[in-house]
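job 3f2a | input accepted
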Amino acid sequence: MSLTQLLADYGYLAVFVGALLEGETVLLLAGFAAHQGYLSLPLVCVIAMVGGTLGDQAYFLLGRRYGESLLRRFPRWLPRVRRVEQLLLRYHAGLIVGVRFMYGLRVVGPIAIGMSGVPVWRFVLFNLLGAALWAPLVAGVGYFFGQTLHWLFADLKRYEEWVLLAIVSGVVVHSLLRRLLRRRREQASRKE
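job 3f2a | predicted structure (192 res):
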């Protein structure tokens, strides 16, 4: 079974699960797959919006219920939680909408907001708005990346397996490098 066939068969499920977690990579690939005709871009956006909303809502409720114990278990989150608290004081609604776009705060952000005094209804409203902006934007980047490649390579179908593999490899390498750099910064801050 080819990578493109897997994407066509399980793409919508992957978009939903990816959006529940930290779905940028999956959503970019789904946008690219939509350009290639394997998935429907509007359906990808709706599924990602629902998954992203539910995922961040779950993180918010985890923060509301178990925030302090999560911080004891994961003390490395503390600087990011403090940063969210500071931003929340200045940019209340904007932070809730934009936290899914902020590097390093996609999971910790909603948890920290849940630990604050933000009412659940307010988080739901702005979380939904943020997901409604995030899903088409990220999927659209993947879609337009496919369009750009199509302009560059007239016979894109012939190269699509390689392009998908290159995209996945690039994202994996990027994610690993981000985590390595984050660990080094955390280790350096502990030594200080």
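job 3f2a | The mean pLDDT is 83.
job 3f2a | closed
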